[in-house]
Predict the structure.
Amino acid sequence: MKRSTRRRLTQGVLYAIFAAVVLLVLLSIDWGRIQPYFFNVDVARDAFPGILTIAAKNTVVYTAIAFVGGMLFGLALALMKLSPVLPYRWLATAYIELFRGLPALLVIFGFAFAVPIAFSWQAPGGSVGAGLIGLIVVSAAYIAETIRAGIEAVPKGQVEAARSLGMNPAWTMITVVLPQAFRIITPPLTNELVILIKDTSLLFIAGMAIGDRELTTFARDSLTNSANATPLVVAALLYLVITLPLTQLVAKLERHNKRGR
Amino acid sequence: MIPVAHTASGSAAVPAIEIRALHKSFGDNEVLKGIDFHVDQGEVVCVIGPSGSGKSTLLRCVNRLEEPTSGTVLVEGIDITDGETDLDGVRTRIGMVFQQFNLFPHLSVLKNLTLAQQRAKKRKRAEAVDIARRNLAKVGLAEKADAFPAQLSGGQQQRVAIARALSMDPDMMLFDEPTSALDPELVGDVLEVMKQLARDGMTMMVVTHEMGFAREVGDRVVFMDGGVVVEQGRPEDVLGDPQHERTKLFLSKVL
């Protein structure tokens, strides 16, 4: 048998196996029983427009706030961890180890309830605002480690070149090191972002007014009201509608940035 | 800029670089074992020697990319090991060219040349661009202003790196094995640019393995081995009639 024929035959078999498995799964689903509870068109229709205009919108807004906050705070932590001043390094290390080790749900709860009482403090944006600060605090710990790794991955010669031209440490960091570091860490940062989108579903623990609900909370309320799980399926699809274009966009951005390497 | 810089620069009596009793150790490894060395203004000094002899470390001590363990490094009479010295200010007057080019890969060629002009010399953008284009033309790469470093050959990248250093209007240039990372057929272009610089009267300290360049362009050749200056003098003397055994041994291997 010729090599090309054999290759084509192997591929044909692989495709056939794939199609068979998909077909088997689809056929073994009891559509008649699952459809009324999970794919009920009337219930799905009732979820709109609220699930878009309130829930999906809030998910996007919370993610944006938490990501921007986490990036800024995480950058500060990363720079502290690389600082020549020892107490700064200790502080950053302790912070990162602490908040990476705690479940995000507990931290959000703490910031929503314990911190306001302890410090007689009112978060901007009420209980959701306080919960968001908890989410920022957690994501900053992860992002800090990612940024630190990115900074350390920029070749030492880059800093030497900038410093030998008379640029001070701050300008060297801002114009030479950080732009290259962020290019290196675009894939893991995308990961952080996608995880954050889903972690906004933990904000419910802070307590939410009707208009504050994000996708998961909104869908769970609808589930309770309609005794039907279809809103959860709609919410799941909407999460994908948010994440998939985002990851595509980042992939495109990455290809664009390749020319500068 | 600190006041002492004014009194020091421009006076022909002051050497561009003066190094006294310089020691440098990395941990237990003493790389420089008491170096006395100078480069006069307008002089081209080539430093040669086997790898591990400390010549690159010596060069990197001049703009304090390496911290001297002890000893004095004077640049135009200014002690750069003094904590009070405006190190960034002094560095704008010392151009440096690296073996690995170290261009900024995320910036266009033009931005590579204007960045430090704007950030360290506080030049306006228009002026910086003007100077950058002039220096690109000088190294024969005027048409590459909008290219990115990755799109250039090694030789072109190194010429851009030279143009970048020149754009700061330095009083002197340090070259750290500028042709060692290049394919043989690309070495010539870079050396040609360096020769032109020397003809224009630039003060240069060149760590190199290019004996032809040292012989042709150098005013003085310094041979280092084992962290000390073994011998120095006019290129034809050091390269043509070496006095020390170690120099003879080294030259017999590279010539």
Notes: The radius of gyration of chain B is 18 Å.
